[in-house]
Amino acid sequence: MNKPKLIYFDAPVSRGEECRLALHLAGIDFEDMRINAADWPAMKSQMPYGTMPVLELPGHLPLAQSNAILVLIGRRHGLHPTDDFEAARHEGMMLHVEELRGRISPTLRMADAEKKVAREALVAEFLPAWASGAERNIAAPFFGGERIHVVDIKLYQAVRWLSGGKVDHIPATVFAGYPKLTGVHDAVRDHPDVKAWYAKA
Ligand SMILES: N[C@@H](CCC(=O)N[C@@H](CS)C(=O)NCC(=O)O)C(=O)O
């Protein structure tokens, strides 16, 4: 292995895509290893925590956990604050995004009737509370102000997923009342390096 390798499902979504985007914004030439769902069960036990994404760097053990991967890339390439308190604040928001995923993910495996009830309950209570918490902590246009960081990429993936109108029982308007949160989404979407990534995809 002579260049970094990012291992994730063959889909431009979620934790894997945010790591790919971070690597791209960091200007790192990496191997983008995309795993078919059918091949995953045989690989699962070989991953540090049985999940993806996993980042392999020459000379190191494989690194799992999306936030750890993002923070490492961010620290090394100017996409995470150097001030330790500000860095911790960014990491707090990254955990906030993981808590959101932790509430939605179980519904992915539900049958539709149960899914509808569970997701409508999330839309009524959890998601507004989650978005309000995010909104209170965001500067503008990005989380920390004028510059993009890995936390913004993570927020972007989450907002893109849930407001894309493709998640059953979650309306595309779910975050419409949270201008700073949707503003981070728009600012990341419109960032020239993000546009370049999707132009080549
Ligand atoms: N906390 C972990 C969660 C990783 C995770 O659950 N990844 C999902 C894909 S987004 C996965 O590997 N699913 C397949 C499985 O659990 O077998 C992280 O942030 O990386």
Mean pLDDT: 97
Structural class: alpha+beta
Oligomer state equals: single chain
- Distinct bound molecules: glutathione
Radius of gyration of CA atoms, rounded to a whole number: 17 Å
Per DSSP, the total helix count is 8
Strand content: 5-15%
Distance between the termini: 24 Å
SSE order in H/E notation?
A: EHEHEEHHHHHH
Which descriptor suits the 3D outline?
Answer: globular
Number of distinct beta strands:
4
Please summarize the sheet with the most strands.
4 strands, mixed
**Helix proportion range:** 55-70%
| Spatial arrangement of strands, main beta sheet | 2-1-3-4
User: Regions with pLDDT < 50 over 5+ consecutive residues?
Assistant: none
Q: What features would you describe in this structure?
A:
- The protein has 201 residues and is α+β, with helices and mostly antiparallel strands.
- 56% of the residues lie in helices and 7% in strands.
- It has helices spanning 14-25, 40-44, 66-76, 84-108, 112-137, 150-162, 179-189, 192-200, and strands at residues 5-9, 31-35, 54-56, 63-64.
- It has a four-stranded mixed sheet, with helices on one face.
- Strand 3 and strand 4 form a beta hairpin.
- Helix 1 (14-25) runs parallel beside helix 3 (66-76), helix 1 packs antiparallel against helix 6 (150-162) and helix 4 (84-108) runs parallel beside helix 6 (150-162).
- The radius of gyration is 17 Å and the shape is globular.
- It binds glutathione (GSH).
- Glutathione (GSH) binds next to helix 1 and helix 3.
